[in-house]
Structure formats: C-alpha cells, structure tokens
Amino acid sequence: MIESFRTRLSKQFKIRWDLVINENRSTMLSVLDRKRGFARLSVHRMFLDAPDDVISAIAHYVRGTTRRDKRIQDLLLRGYIQTNLCRFNYAHLLDEKKFVTKGRFYDLQTIYDQLNEEYFQSLNLKITWNGTWGMKKRRRITFGQYLDHLNLVKVHRILDDPFFPDYFVSFIVYHEMVHSIVRGYIDSRGFYRIHGAKFKKIEKEFVDYDRAINWEKKHRKEFLRDGWT
Known about the structure:
The chain has 229 residues and is of the alpha/beta class.
C-alpha cells in the first residue's frame, strides 16, 4: 500500500521528495524539510488509501498554491482527516492518571454518568477538565471538545465556576457526548459539517436545551469580548 501511495503521489511532483508514515494523534500531515527541489513529507497512514482528489490536495499542500485554491485544498484535507480519524483508536495510549474530573465546583464524572444513564446508557467515554481556570474575558473559547480517536471529552475549566449554572455545564457535556454518536460529514459543497440535522435533533432532546441556550445568549458578553464557540 505504501508503494502504491508513493507511485500515485509521484505523479503529482516534479521535485525530489521523501516520505515518512506517521501514527500521530494530532498533526496528520506536515512537511518536515523543504529545500530547493526537495521536500520530506510526513503523512498519517490514513492517507495511504486516500482517493485521487485527496492525493492531489496533498501535492498542492507541499508545493504551495494560490490563496483561493489553498482554501479549497485545506477544506478537502481537513474533511478527509476528520471523517477518517474514527478508523483509528488511540484511546489505549492515554494516561488516565493525568485526567482531572473533580473540579472546584463541578464533578465531570458525576455529570457524565448521570447523562449517560438518562440519555445514552452504553457510552464508554473518558472525560477530563482542560485549559486554564479563571473568569478573565477572552476573545474566543471552546467550552467542550470530543476527540473521536481518543474516545475523550475535554471540558474547559472556565466552566468550573458557580457563574455557570449546573444545567449549562451539563448541556456542554451532553453536546460533546452527542458528537460521539453522530459523526461529522462532508456536504455537497465539500465543507466538513459537525452539526447537521441529525445532530441538532438529538441535541434538542436535552431536557434543559432551551434554558441553556437562552442563558448563553443572555450572559456571553459577561465573559467574552467578541463571541464564543
């Protein structure tokens, strides 16, 4: 498979190049070294059986392209990575001793267990606090994140504060748990989407959905300068 990948990618290059196959959990594609007429490329093994348009996008990534084409190629590569990462499970590499679930005000494991029992029953995810604690104003913040290849939910420590009501913190955890059962997809325009119709339908089943959304709309200016994600 590696030789087949080399052959397919070689058709896209006019320079000398070398290849490193990686098993990274974050940086799936990178140029390790670039000199005049030479490049050393590191790619995750998920790309070995990638379709031709993705192979072409890798070549564009290495040799550079126009701003417009770069945006298109970046979307294609990002979408391919997101939709294929679920094929690889690196959860066994996690050091669970580093997980922190009990915060100053909220216990994530308790919240997760209650939600799992009420809405999901059979999920087997890990959860941990992540980021810097404190209520300083920020330009942007991601309250939660689900990492499919790690079966891991990360929740930002800013939520570990009585300013955030318990139903809102629970909603953020619930939102990330839904991501574990509704995968992202590439739409007809080539954009990677994570909040499609199916996701939104399940998300609204949360008992305090309207209450949590309304609270966020009312209070977001109190902890963010511009907006939030």
